[in-house]
């Protein structure tokens, strides 16, 4: 009898678009709109915590001046 190999780890959903530039005025990443502490802790957050951040991201875009968003 052979043992079933363990399932590979489930990928963690992320809003990262590989544009890692933090806006000093808002404190948000211009690419994903997360804060530095959120980015640093992302892998350790629960699914519910990540989901809450993901829901908040669209509204955060308004906190970044449009000319800065035009840079990416």
Describe the fold and architecture:
It is built from three helices and no strands. The protein has one domain (16-72). The chain has 72 residues and is mostly helical. The chain is elongated, with a radius of gyration of 16 Å.
Q: What's the number of domains?
A: 1
Share of β-strand residues = under 5%
Order of helices and strands: HHH
Query: Spans with pLDDT under 50 lasting ≥5 residues?
Result: none
- Could you estimate the helical fraction of the residues in percent? 25-40%
- The strand count comes to 0
Concise structural overview:
This protein is mainly α and 72 residues long. It has helices at 36-41, 47-60, 66-69.
Please give the structural blueprint.
Elements lengths: L35 H6 L5 H14 L5 H4 L3
Question: Features of this protein?
Answer:
single chain; 72 residues; mainly alpha
């Amino acid at each position: 009898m052979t043992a079933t190999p363990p399932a590979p780890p489930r990928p963690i959903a992320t809003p990262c678009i590989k544009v890692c530039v933090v806006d000093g005025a808002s404190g948000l990443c211009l690419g994903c709109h997360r804060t530095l502490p959120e980015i640093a802790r992302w892998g350790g957050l629960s699914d519910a915590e990540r989901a809450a951040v993901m829901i908040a991201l669209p509204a955060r875009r308004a906190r970044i001046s449009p000319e800065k968003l035009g840079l990416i």
